[in-house]
């Protein structure tokens, strides 16, 4: 036999499937190495918000009778069910699962989508995958490694939750851990499919986030209508499955099979797609563009680059505003004299009428999500710089301030658009108090701007640490999100700019914090721009 | 002052990134209307120097003048008069090549529309494709079309032809020649020596952030050496004693089997000498060789490559000599 025949024969002896997965181990090690800081931080945050909950619940509801009381009134209120899902039991464990389980699942989903897209489409878009795939790396190995990395992070977070909650009942603890981890894995699957469909990592993340948002709205709508999680809308949503797993309330283990089956089905679909396409290519084709361009200024370029994301965010805010606005009237279903419930709602940011309290809570949530938008948008400036795309633009007759201003107008102007859209949406859904609801929505802007200004300062004065803007906004979100339920000291609550805003609608209008925050934001932006003007541009 | 303003006038430029001295007293003078080659090994500081000239980096010390202005303070005004092509063009994935060309043109304050269309044609570029789908060479073409179609005084080209095929390289060279004909000044950083040799009036070679050689090619050639390979029937005597002879190697050809000699291109028993000689001492050395009975003689004039290699690395001269020998066969 000749050497050539021997070489040709060798691969045939191995199973085709094994060849497609060749190199998965090495790629997984690469992924874990690259995520060695990010993934553990995510896991700690996801499990931390759950494990912090029982203690605070116990301090609010000291006795079983109080918890039972709270459970009944919460479950009677369609708005509360929409926000958190139905309550299935009055144990501390069950209340923990109700209050935070779904949100921990959402966070796990975001973690998974970031990890999966980062190791699949991102690698292909940047061209790094080409070099990896030229080595002994099977067609499906990158996807396998990315999914395994995400699954490992999800399982780690779930395990931390299960271990931390085990003292309150092992079965419930594991159901809660499985629910959170399962939701994360489900959206790892969604991200894996989205990464096959589009050539852009940004778009793949956007698609997955849109699916996640839709899942939340479906569950919220379903649970607003029914008190036991049995609505078909709830069952349509993967987040509803997590609710229906019922940790600490007669766990329904068969739901695990549903979650597992869906994960497997998604994985198979993603594998099938991955095996049928070229590296770097996608199923959604890239259409040709115009041969001549009309973009004439740096500002127009920035608008062109960001318009898709601004439109997407605005549409999302409008729709979510309508949905949550529609739930607002349900807040009054609640039996008014229940002290504990009123306490809870007041803690969540409202003061005054229950409907106003609900609207104020939702408006606060929208404001915090808009802070994510403004940071992402400001960091586009940083992305343009580090990707070297800014260099030829700045080699044109474009001053740095003009170049930066183009993106900042969109970042800060976009927040106005977003908050106006969600305010209008809520007013439409709610059907009354249009001016008050829109005004409340817009009143969140100064705090959003402060976080945006902080991002500008980092990009301008300390570009190496620009991504720290995410850590800042994450901290503020955590304070606003779980701070009231955890009874954090006021000093900590005051760290977040959102804590200084009047709780509109309902509370008395107070202009001074709004003006002060706007001034702080303006100062931060000015300092950032001054830094940008003076420093060297980042080079490759 | 009667002297015309230099397009680029850099003296004693320093720039450090932490402990790295990217520029260590760089001098660079580009006269108005000339095509100036800017050479140096990877990491020599060429791109850093260009970024200082573009006002993207601020020099630590030294002076830099671009078209008579301060590249940092007058950046915007100066940039109306220059076009820049980086060595690695990154495009926005969702903008078409045509859109990017027009954008760059407008950002520089003007694009000759007819020339733009002609250049798109000549570079065989499809301007409707999106940024993501262009190959490396095609991304370069996008930036090149935008640069050559812009109505500017100075073109700063940083390894502009990386990834271009030989046909496109030719188009690029004719574009440079045309731009020169229109009185443009061109600063061309390049590793393609034939390109530099064909296009450039003057070159500057930099190494470790410092200029090591600068002048016209003729001037630089004069400073360098000619490689000579000769087969002699008689022993050559002590050539190394002659002034200007370097790297002498003498091979005895007597003992070789005729078949091997044939394969090696050797003409039979004798002596092969290989050496380099300072170009102005060439005549005297050849006279001396003639006495030893020249059977064959190859003399290679100094190439830019040799010049280049001499400055890139101190110990490559022997290798260069060996390569000359191989080419002579």
Automatic annotation (TrEMBL), chain A:
Q: Which domain of life is it from?
A: Bacteria
The record's keywords, sorted A to Z, are: Membrane, Transmembrane, Transmembrane helix
The answer to whether keyword Calcium applies is no
Q: Where are the transmembrane segments?
A: 39-64, 100-121, 141-163, 170-195, 252-274, 310-332, 357-379, 408-429, 435-459, 466-486, 511-532
Is this entry keyworded Transmembrane?
yes
Question: What's the protein name?
Answer: ABC transporter permease
Lineage summary: Bacteria, Bacillati, Actinomycetota, Actinomycetes, Kitasatosporales
From TrEMBL, chain B:
Pinpoint the ABC transporter domain residues. 8-233
Q: Which SUPFAM superfamilies has this protein been placed in?
A: P-loop containing nucleoside triphosphate hydrolases
Q: Does the keyword Nucleotide-binding apply?
A: yes
Q: What does the record say about its membrane topology?
A: Peripheral membrane protein
Q: Which residues form a coiled coil?
A: none
Q: Which InterPro entries match?
A: AAA+_ATPase (IPR003593), ABC_transporter-like_ATP-bd (IPR003439), ABC_transporter-like_CS (IPR017871), ABC_transporter_ATP-binding (IPR050763), P-loop_NTPase (IPR027417)
Identify the Pfam families for this entry: ABC_tran
The protein's UniProt keywords, in alphabetical order, are: Antibiotic resistance, ATP-binding, Nucleotide-binding, Transport
Q: Where in the cell is it found?
A: Cell membrane
Question: What family does this chain come from, according to its entry?
Answer: Belongs to the ABC transporter superfamily.
Note the PANTHER family from the entry: ABC TRANSPORTER ATP-BINDING PROTEIN (PTHR42711), ABC TRANSPORTER ATP-BINDING PROTEIN NATA (PTHR42711:SF5)
The protein depicted here goes by the name ABC transporter
